[in-house]
Automatic annotation (TrEMBL):
The lineage of its organism: Bacteria, Bacillati, Actinomycetota, Actinomycetes, Micromonosporales. It comes from Micromonospora echinospora. It comes from the Bacteria. Keywords: Methyltransferase, Transferase. This is N-methyltransferase. One of its GO terms (biological process) is methylation. InterPro entries: Methyltran_NanM, SAM-dependent_MTases_sf. GO terms for molecular function: methyltransferase activity.
């Protein structure tokens, strides 16, 4: 019986290499170091996929029935082999989970039936895919860099049927004068998700001016500021990449992005920075789940106001 209560072979190895007597000598950093990676949590430096899947699973379990309907209507989501989990029999990845949450937020303030949509910086096209799959969008214009547009055009051609794909107009910024290309266009909804913050400030302002002239509503989702926390990614892309990232966007103040008070203190400047013009007002804003330092807002064009603007 005495032999029954002994360490398993697995824990014999852990005790030799991780949870050693030496680990108890200095408690200063043990909770973020090797001993605790075997006691309480997986090492985040090598378990990124595990944590990502956990995040997606937890977020998916909080979706409501209407969210699941939005997802199910958006077919072919597994094209491209995303990192996904299964919840309720449905495969779901973080990209389309975010797209579903974004659409829920937009629907609360904007009537999308028969809408004409402009998206600036569409990535590979998941927002376009989700909107066209869930609403009778009349026209969808994507303005983007040519290199990214090669990917979005190919992807959207793969996941959409002919009728929906035919509604999309692609405007590469290198090949056309964007203002001239959109001169005759009016948009019920303009969208920017996570790209104004990566543009030169003057470029972002030019797009906001264009939206102010051509749009009726704007949905924007971007960071409220910058961060310089080496513990998050080890600054693996080097100093040049960091300098370039710090130069972009309208909101360049460095803050602790995992301090909710610091993030919320930056929200008023976010709301002001993305208002397209004096005759626009913010009609809704909220934290953009799941990223701690992202905010989302809906603006609508209306009469100029002399009072404080949201």
């Amino acid at each position: 019986m005495a032999d029954t209560y002994q360490a398993s072979r697995q824990w014999e190895r852990i005790s030799r290499h991780w949870v050693t007597e030496e680990a108890a000598v200095d408690l200063a950093n043990f909770k973020s170091g090797r001993p605790n990676h075997k006691i309480s949590l997986w090492n985040p430096e090598v378990n990124g996929v595990r944590y990502l899947k956990t995040l997606v699973h937890n977020l998916a379990t909080a979706l409501g029935p209407a969210d699941w309907e939005r997802l199910r209507r958006t077919t072919h989501r597994d094209v491209g082999n995303p990192i996904a989990v299964r919840v309720g029999g449905e495969s779901i990845c973080l990209d389309y989970l975010q797209a579903t949450l974004e659409l829920r937020f937009i629907e609360q303030s904007v009537d999308l039936a028969g809408a004409s949509v402009l998206e600036i910086g569409a990535g590979y096209g998941r927002t376009c895919h989700t909107l066209l799959s869930n609403h009778d969008i009349a026209a969808y214009c994507i303005v983007d860099l040519r290199s990214t547009m090669h990917l979005s055009r190919r992807y959207l051609r793969e996941v959409l049927d002919d009728a929906r794909f035919a509604k999309i107009r692609f405007v590469p910024v290198e090949d056309e004068d964007v203002n001239a290309a959109l001169r005759e266009s009016e948009f019920d909804l303009c969208i920017n998700i996570d790209s104004f913050a990566e543009m030169a400030p003057e470029t972002a302002r030019s797009y906001l001016d264009l939206i102010g002239e051509r749009g009726t509503a704007l949905y924007v989702k971007n960071p409220v500021g910058k961060y310089w926390d080496q513990s998050l990614d080890g600054h693996v892309e080097g100093d040049d990449a960091l300098r370039r990232a710090m130069e972009t966007g309208l909101l360049r103040e460095v803050l602790d992005i995992h301090d909710d008070r610091a993030v919320r203190a930056a929200v008023p400047e976010f709301i002001a920075a993305y208002r397209p013009g004096d005759d626009w007002r913010c009609v809704a804003d909220a934290w953009a789940v799941p990223w701690s330092f992202y905010w989302q807002a809906i603006y609508r064009r209306g009469r100029p106001s002399t009072g404080p603007q949201r």
